[in-house]
Amino acid sequence: MTTSVQGTTSSSTATSSAATTSASQLTATQDRFLSLLVAQLKNQDPLNPMDNAQVTSQMAQLSTVSGINQLNATVQALSASMTSSQSLQAASTIGHAALVPGSEIDLLNGVSNGAVELTQPADKVTVTITDAKGNTVRTLQLGAQDTGIADFKWDGTDNTGAAVANGAYKFSAAAELSGNKSTPAALTYGLVNSVSLSASGAKLNVGNLGDIDMSSVRRIL
Predict the structure, then answer these.
(1) Same-domain pairing of 31 and 85
(2) 37, 178, 182, 203 — which has fewest CB within 10 A?
(3) Do 110 and 176 share a domain, yes or no?
């Protein structure tokens, strides 16, 4: 298992380079402004000199531009720091099981785990497990559940009590509150194999589930 962390170094280097370029551009802008201001003062009409308010206004405009550039540089530095911190956090998840959005569930040696996420309490939650052909294999009753994540465990048997073969299955969930039905989000566990970094942030490679955004991870075991 490998971690793609080179993107962090590249990102930090690029941010540092951008900040240096921004500072150089700001210095050049200030130099040009002062040169123009001095030229204006030297060549002004003695009988109609520049008004102090004009000079003050121009200086204020330069100060505003300078402040904006400094703010941009600060934001870029904070962004680079956050990206680096996120990449380190993401790297620490390698080899761990992550609970992420997905309806896949793998049965191994008669044991399988999954979860559903409810946006409101429910009087009854039902989980339906199906095989590759879409046939119902097992129906689990989770009973009443509060808002949030509700875990469930499948013992690998069908509705008749017979053991089924190991392999990949799917599941869906249905909830009911005072007669009103809803569909909880399906969550599945997967092993984090690697981490990749992009402009949008860190992504976890979770087996057959593919790349998952860090923000989508509900739990790390």
Answers:
(1) yes
(2) 178
(3) yes
Q: Which two tokens stand for residue 113?
A: 């785990």
Provide the residue range defining the domain that includes 77.
6-91
The pLDDT of residue 41 is 62
Is residue 171 classed exposed, middle or buried when 0-12, 13-18 and 19+ CB atoms within 10 A define those classes? buried
Does residue 184 sit in the same domain as residue 106? yes
Question: For the segment 66-114, what is each residue's pLDDT rounded down to a tens digit?
Answer: 666 666 666 666 555 555 566 667 778 888 899 999 999 999 988 999 9
pLDDT tens string 19-69:
555 556 666 666 776 677 667 666 666 656 656 666 667 666 666 766 666
Q: Which residues contact 94 (CB under 8 A, 6 or more apart)?
A: 1, 3, 192, 193, 194, 195
Q: Measuring CA to CA, how many Å separate 53 from each of 38, 44, 57, 58, 204?
A: 16, 15, 6, 9, 58
Report the percent of the chain where pLDDT is more than 70: 61
**Number of Cβ atoms within 10 Å of the Cβ of 158:** 15
